[in-house]
Amino acid sequence: MTEKELFLKVAERVKELRTEKGMSQQELAGLIDFEKSNMSRFEAGGTNPTIATLYKIAQALDVTLSELLMIE
Amino acid sequence: MTEKELFLKVAERVKELRTEKGMSQQELAGLIDFEKSNMSRFEAGGTNPTIATLYKIAQALDVTLSELLMIE
User: Fold this and answer.
1) Does the beta-carbon distance from A10 to B64 stay under 8 Å?
2) Residue numbers of the domain that contains A62
3) Which chain B residues touch A69 with a CB distance below 8 Å?
């Protein structure tokens, strides 16, 4: 998988978990101290997130990092 | 878990998988195009790796990202 595909798969997984919980992009952005614009760029697969950011997202979505990254 | 603990847990997990495969730090660094010094700083828990770096490490260690990040 290319880096571009990787970023997109991570983004789609976050969106899947977020919508399953009935959470808006704005709410998730607020929980992890993200600007709304950053959140939408992230969910468009346009960023290369760090483990620290992914951990905050996993906590906000109440899943483990391992569950968050079940993308293969 | 604090960010420091997170970086350390990820580092310990990579070291655990690397040594299980009988791979040296130098060999892993070579496989993912890392300087040896970066690899040792990473395994000391001193860095906040991106998903792109973690994916390269997972591939080099022949595990999925989800398996790599089973740290909770």
Assistant:
1) no
2) 3-68
3) 51, 64-66, 69
> Total domain count for chain B?
1
Picking from A9, A55, A62 by the largest number of B CB atoms within 10 A of its own CB, the best residue to mutate is A55
Q: Give per-residue pLDDT as tens, B43-54.
A: 999 999 999 999
Take residue A71 and report the two structure tokens written for it: 């993308």
Determine whether the interchain pair A50/B55 forms a contact, defined as Cβ–Cβ distance below 8 Å: no
CATH of the domain at A14: 1.10.260.40
Q: Please tell me the distance from the alpha carbon of residue A70 to that of residue B58, in angstroms, as a whole number.
A: 13
Contact A7 B50 (CB under 8 A): no
Query: What is the ipTM metric for this complex?
Result: 0.94
pLDDT one-digit tens code per residue, A43-55: 999 999 999 999 9
The candidate with the shortest Cα–Cα distance to A54, out of A6, A4, A5, is A6
